[in-house]
Specification:
The chain has 218 residues and is α/β, with parallel strands linked by helices. It has a single domain, classed as Rossmann fold, CATH 3.40.50. The longest helix is centred in the N-terminal third of the chain and has 14 residues.
Length: 218
């Protein structure tokens, strides 16, 4: 576990200073996710892998009566995130250093009840234990909570040369779309655990997944 924290700090120790300026050009679909999340007053919303807190700041300004939380494995990245939160003047964001597959709503964030919404924005493709992270996210959701993912997809509708170049470039940053991501969610849906929505974006460049926990009948 220590290696995971150290590796992320090593990766982002310098990148954090220009992360937002570069990522806005190719992390497509983030704003659509934020628009569609439908945050209500009083809700508790977590971003797993929050990076510089860009998404959280947008949401916190948009929904001042909701409560937002971010976790990241990189303490260095969270230093930048906290500075940006402070500069933005928002008071409804709490940040913690933690792993997506290992956090708890109570012990990590001192909350009395699970989250209403949890989302992963371009972080699943960087998390080796992504299945465990999704399962842990679902375990930390309220009984009717929702989990969202926006990330790279299979680029099936894009030119072959573009797909090849993008894959090689993402490999440099240890980013890889897990081909089993959609089947994994479909398997969860088949058990009755969630109701699922899957939306490919930009000819398969990225994908938006929503998994709402199914209310169990008694």
């Amino acid at each position: 576990m220590t290696d995971a924290f150290e590796n992320m700090d090593r990766m982002y120790r310098l990148q954090r200073y220009f992360y937002d300026a570069t990522r806005k050009f190719y992390l497509l679909g983030r704003d659509r996710l934020l628009d569609e999340m439908d945050v209500k007053p009083g809700e508790h919303v977590l971003e797993a892998g929050c990076g510089t807190a860009r998404n959280l700041i947008i949401l916190a300004k948009r929904h001042p009566k909701a409560h937002f939380y971010g976790l990241d494995a990189s303490a260095a990245m969270l230093e930048t995130a906290q500075a940006k939160v402070d500069a933005a003047g928002v008071k409804n964001i709490t940040l913690r250093t933690a792993l997506a597959d290992d956090f708890r709503f109570d012990s990590t964030f001192e909350l009395a009840k699970p989250f209403d919404k949890i989302f992963f924005s371009y972080s699943i493709s960087m998390i080796p234990p992504w299945r465990e992270s999704i399962k842990n996210g679902l375990e930390n959701l309220s009984s009717e909570g929702s989990l969202f993912i926006v990330d790279f997809y299979d680029q099936a509708g894009l030119p072959r040369l573009f797909r090849s170049a993008l894959t090689r470039w993402l490999d440099l940053f240890h980013v890889r779309y897990p081909a089993e991501l959609v089947p994994f969610h479909q398997a969860l849906e088949s058990t009755g655990a969630v109701s699922l929505s899957v939306t490919p974006l930009y000819r398969g460049y990225s994908i938006l997944i929503g998994a709402k926990k199914a209310t169990k009948s008694t």
